[in-house]
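Posted in: Structural Biology > Protein-Ligand Complexes

Title: Requesting predicted complex, pyridoxal-5'-phosphate in pocket

I'd be grateful if someone could produce the 3D structure tokens for the following input. Sequence and ligand are given below.
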Amino acid sequence: MIVYADNAATTAVSEAALAAMLPCLGEIYGNPSSLHTPGQRAAELLEEARGGFARHLGARPREIYFTSGGSESDNQALRSAAALGARKGKRHIVSTAFEHHAVLHTLEALEKEGFSVTLLDIPPDGVVTAEQVRAALRPETCLVSVMFANNEIGTIQPIADIGAVCREAGVLFHTDAVQAAGHLPIDVEAMHIDLLSLSAHKFHGPKGAGMLYARQGVALQPLIYGGAQERGRRAGTENLAAIRGAAAAFQEACRSMAEEAAALTALRDRLIAGLTAIPHTVLNGDPRRRLPGNVNVCIEGIEGESLLLMLDDAGIAASSGSACTSGSLDPSHVLLALGRPHEVAHGSLRLSLSRYNRPEEVDHILETVPRVVSYLRSISPVWDELERGARPHLI
Ligand SMILES: *Cc1c(COP(=O)(O)O)cnc(C)c1O
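-- Reply #1 --
Done. Output follows.
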């Protein structure tokens, strides 16, 4: 048995999503741009998917653009807002130090192209405030980009408040909602969101399918030039199977959101209580303002990677930092931004649950992690020094 607790990295495709996709890998193969009947049938399905996303986000169908995923949506949102700003001589962008690399690396590229970027510090609870955003705004600010929920520590940002600050200042507001979509209620109107990214594989849809919401009047700049698909903003024949799978998964996730959140929160809180009972272990991020399925702890005196390998042997798939940083020796930029010292950030464990996790799986995790941590500490020279008082405990 595998206990899959790495749903912030990716999720299993749901049965509903798979069922929506299969016909488009079979009998429905028309090109939505073709004028004949098979093409028009495909075009109808494409627009049905667009309408579904719009409905659940409080958007209009013409504000929905399909992309290849969260990374592409983030790149296009940031580049579009930057281009609109540059036209008015505004070349300053506000974002945060704990964004996903799809945002941070795009911002680095924009810096090389002459934009200046302010990255907000992350408070110890992992929740950025609207006041921080307001204080960072300058007359030449063209864009604020703050993620809806963080992918490592799961903390939920005050998006409606930040959106109100941006709207009042006349600055475009983008949110990377990849971790939030399908898990938290989103209303682009009420939250004053101008640009929003989401990705299907984080809510039980297929990989390689994403969506970018752009409020009417916010002109997207294409990253890919070619045909007139997606109203000329994203060329290339649409991946209809993946888009339909994404729409079906999103609808399913939105409909069962409240029920699922309640069940996941109960499992999450059991995990948090059990894991923080391990001596010298702390929770990263606010205990309540976090995604229903996210647990992230730092455990002193162990290496996250050793822990992951031993958990994998015990049939538990978890993560240390993000999937993108594991495999490198650098500690997570998110935990560093949270103020964790390097040696503490190295000993992190992220467990991210989904609707498919069962309470018995949480029992298995709670039996296994403390045992593995004890073993790893017993063979760790660092832990020995900490216990002898040769160096101070940091947690
Ligand atoms: C997964 C993720 C992305 C990237 O999405 P892809 O569809 O994998 O490109 C971007 N932002 C956040 C917050 C994520 O969790």
